[in-house]
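Our collaborator T.R. sent over the components below with a one-line note: 'Predict the complex.' Nothing else. No constraints on interfaces, no templates requested, no preferences about which chain binds where. So this is a plain run: every listed entity goes in together, and whatever single assembly comes back becomes the starting point for the next discussion.
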Amino acid sequence: MSAKIKITVNGVMHEAEAGRNILQILLDLGIMLPHFCYHEALGAAGACRLCAAMISPGAGKPARLEMACMTRAEDGMIVDITNPQAVDFREKLIEELMLNHPHDCPVCDEGGECMLQDMTVLCRHQHRRNRFPKRTWRNQDLGPHIHHEMNRCITCYRCVRFYRDYALGDDLGVFGSRGRVYFGRMRDGALVSEFSGNLVDVCPTGVFTDKHFRAVYCRPWDLQTAPSICPHCSVGCNVLPGSRHKTLRRIKPRRNHTVNRFFMCDHGRFGGGFVNADNRLTSARFDGAGMSLDDAITQTAERLKEIVQTHGRGAVAAIGSPGASLEANAALILLMKTLEGRFAFFSTGAERAAHKRAAALIANGQVDTPSLPEVEQADFTLIVGGDITREAPMMDLAVRQTIRAGAPLFIISPQAGKLDAFAKAARHAALPEQAAIVSNIAQALDHALMTGQPDPFAGAAASALATAKRPQILCGATGAGGIALVDAAHSLVAKAVRPERPCRLVYWFPAMNSFGISLARNDESPDTIKQDVENGRIKALTILEHGASLDSEWPDDSKPMKSCFTIAVDAIAGKAATDADAVLPCASHYETFGTVMNYEGRAQRFEGLPLPRPVTWSSAEVLLKLIEALGAGEAINRTEYHDLFEIPATMSSLIGTLAPDSEGLLIRSTAAVREVVG
Amino acid sequence: MAQGVRTMSEIVLFKNIQKNGPELFPAGAAAIPACGYDDYVKNGGYQGARKALKMAPLEVQQVVKDSGLRGRGGAGFPTGMKWSFVPMDFKGQKYLICNCDEMEPGTFKDRALVYGDPHQLIESMIIAAYAMQMTQGFIFIRCEYRKGARILEQAAAEALNHGWLGKNIQSSGFDFHLDVHLSAGRYICGEETALLNSLEGKRANPRSKPPFPQVYGFLGSPTIVNNVETLCNLPHILARGAQWHKSLGLNGNAGTKIMGASGRVKNPGLWELPLGTPMREVLNEHAGGPSRGKSFKTVIPGGLSTPMMTPDQFDTPLDFDSVAKAGSRLGTACLIAFDEDDCMVAATANIMKFYMRESCGFCTPCREGIPWIYETVKAIAEGKGEEGDLAVLDDMARHIFHTFCAFAPGAQGPLLSAITTFRHEFEFLIQKSQCHTAGGAS
Amino acid sequence: MISDALKVQLTGHCGHYPSRRVGLIFVMQKLQEHYGGWLPEEAIREAAEISGVPETEVEGVATFYNWFFREPAGRHIIVVCDSISCYLCGCDRIAANLERKLGIKLGETTPDGMFTLLPVVCLGNCDKAPSIMVDDELYGPVTADMIDEIIEKTASETHGTRRAHDERNRPV
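Returned assembly:
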């Protein structure tokens, strides 16, 4: 905890954290001092000059008009934002910014959430005195996601400070000078950064807007929103999807200072199309006949009973999904318990083993897993086990912050990736070979200070690791690297940890809730289930949210499941649902609620948008109804999460109480969290 | 004429230039050749550096401190004090940069020093570099002085041949490498932090201070940026002592200052005069008084960015403190004179056009405010002024002060003084749509 | 395309500094010379490659400084000082004369590609106002009747350094 100082704001004494700038302190205190270019993540630039306040170093000392963002708070400072000189300065400043602004608010997509609008009203600029022509610009085509409207620009430099300085993208820049400063690409073309969508959020006015949102436009205040979690990877970014009429319109990042903070990746932001997709399942089906969901559930229950009676235990199985919530998977497991069936999750046996090992290490507190803000603080990073830029983009963005701070980065990946350009060294090797390279580094660590290492890459990585103060290893626990890679990374960390120096370890997973389902008790290898389906031993297979699963290879065309009665509980009419004998449609991720666990083992609650669809039940609810139809409804009330998953009983009881806007619940610190919540 | 009335006993900075005749540079395209190495040495050149290299670096700093030398680029900050902020125990490379980005309108003194006596500047840089143990130097020279860059490069090659640059100069054990960097233009590069960005190959937006360049400058290393004229004083201070330098100025000011005059004067030119010489003497005796037989209306004393001064202030001694007391700034001490037939509104429009064009565009008041001011003043000057225009100018003139760097406050100086001192001209034009002067600007 | 020799020279120049980027302005100046006084997109790419600076940044630099040109300009560049001392001494007349003589406006290039006429800030020649600079040659005080002579003399020179002007930027 940093030291506290006292500063006086508008005559009232406040306590504040030392070392911060005055503007941030005011904003934290809930005092809105108008500003544009300052952004908590991007820092102060001093470009807009709006956050002017009268600031005196202390009582009896003369106050001067200063930019609050550029002034470091010192003990005893006196800040007055209501001083007439400051108020007048800010009003004139807005007047200047509005000289060339097109005043196109009625037709501007930003209207309603435009910081320029807000600040103009806040600074009480109303009358335009300028009678000279405005400057006009030619806009660029920035690709499928971002619309460009340069005339609205107020030159706060936030876009390049985010895109270039923060996210280390190199295809958006600033051109020209004086009153003709232009922000854009060197020539028309799609922005290549994985984080380009954040331009929409950081731009304080409508220069960069969301093309998808403006395609079917509505005012932001007409959106219905629900706090949700991005379903696209295991980072678990907090998001705010917004809907209007019958469709999802956009997804924005939702602030969570322990996860994604301010930003999100383009995959998450622009990847909500599945909600509005044409192939959404809207009606239930049983043996080819359309019917109500209730009827389909009843008939399915009857059929399941028959199969169990005919073929006995083990004839019924289920495949759970890492793309579905803890609740849905729990319901599926409970269904199998009711029917004495078997279950597994989408992936392969080897992958499954790797996930389970990694999740167990985290859940047991055997590794120190950093949150994203903690990832940013590392001074050494080794990435191994996959392409983090594609598999966990926001973690890539966090690593970029370590690069900005000058920390060395080493990469072992299957093929060239975008972070390679920033790495001290990058080694490309197939996933199964990567464990050996990690082991080499661990060996080299023993003689890190020796020169002439047999493996120069391992030697360089080891010596950087040896001298780092806050090292971290980010390891993909996603697939072909297998359990060997998970163990190799763990061994390396174990070797690198010293009493005075922790070494953190991230395992990232293939899907949103991979971590959660990895804790399931008594699941089988997907390989044996698959085998038994193919050889006819399994007579009924329930498939949960295959459409949301990342694994689309199975079930596939090559292995028809003719002899097996299949039940698809899904939102999307994918392969599984098309071929299924019973189709039980459910709501999609953004339309429902649940709990998921991210790569840290952080349980996070999400809520659903109230989209008026024929299907409003979540997959968990559909499955619970199926259990009820089987006559086993009482099992539902008797079952706790920790009966089905290897989680502490304390956590189990807290999951239901999680608030979507909380920091979530870390599995390794469940006891501590309970004190806070309780 | 200029030499006849010189009040100095000794010509220092110009001594190798003056020998070519009373006019530093005759009119026309052909400039006189620069003073070469042999002539420079014959005239006592490199004696100051020779002396400095025998002293301890901190002793050299002390001499400069004692000499009372203040920066000649315009701000007048004590040079010795600026140097003392450089952390001498810094392990890595430190940099010395000569600011030869002379672009302040009305200012032409550094051109004379560079084109006329390049070795004087090189010797100066050796002394400064040695004093702060900086082994790499740059001369940052504006693009329009590309001939000067070639003169400097040639002189640097001569100096290298004679063991004054490169490794182990004059067997002192001190290395000093000097590069001439030809700028790609723009006035803002003269701002020292913008200059650093420019030298690093970036857009020349100024940086925020702190950190100051003395601690975190070029490529993040301790860096000193000094003006050409400031540096050129060093060989003489070292050769002849701090006390000698102190005695050169008038009224307790230290040293000489190159003063200039242009605009409505009979004999525009440059003169090396004691710091503290009254403005009236420069205008009337050296510059020969007004050029058109009219009396002076106003003078901008130190390059465009300094507030205008009126005839009742002409007795002000031209030194940093006296001019500041009179409400303006000494700046570069290159006077720009206007006479009573000049339309100050049209002149202000011209001045604002310069600032509009040269703004780097980083912060709002400068980027947006100055073009608006320019459009407004231009409209008034063209007889299209409207009621309310002066209120806009009043607001903006106050407003453009709180900016990221000193550029817009530089524009504020002449603007505020114009709309205050010559308000009646603005009012007349707005009301009558024509200038109150007979002819307006020529 | 630049020659391998030039590329080696420029790459070496960048390598001379602790940060390659320090050499960027010099590299761009040399490329501009090579391409006849302006920087085509090819030159931006080459400067990026040689200096290790992303081409977007190189473009940012190219459009910031007024002596980098992103469009072709005349064989000879005539710049007319329009700052205060020259203004007082009649630079507007000189500019008007030049415009008439060349048949173009300030900021334009003659159709034959011989001259580009530009305004410039103070040339530091205020004691010889009004001043103009033609390529590397400075003239002042310039009178109306000197202009014909200066232009004819310049046009007859075979080795004009081609330079151009960046009043381009992006406004429509």
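Summary for T.R.: The first strand of chain C starts at residue 76 and ends at 81.
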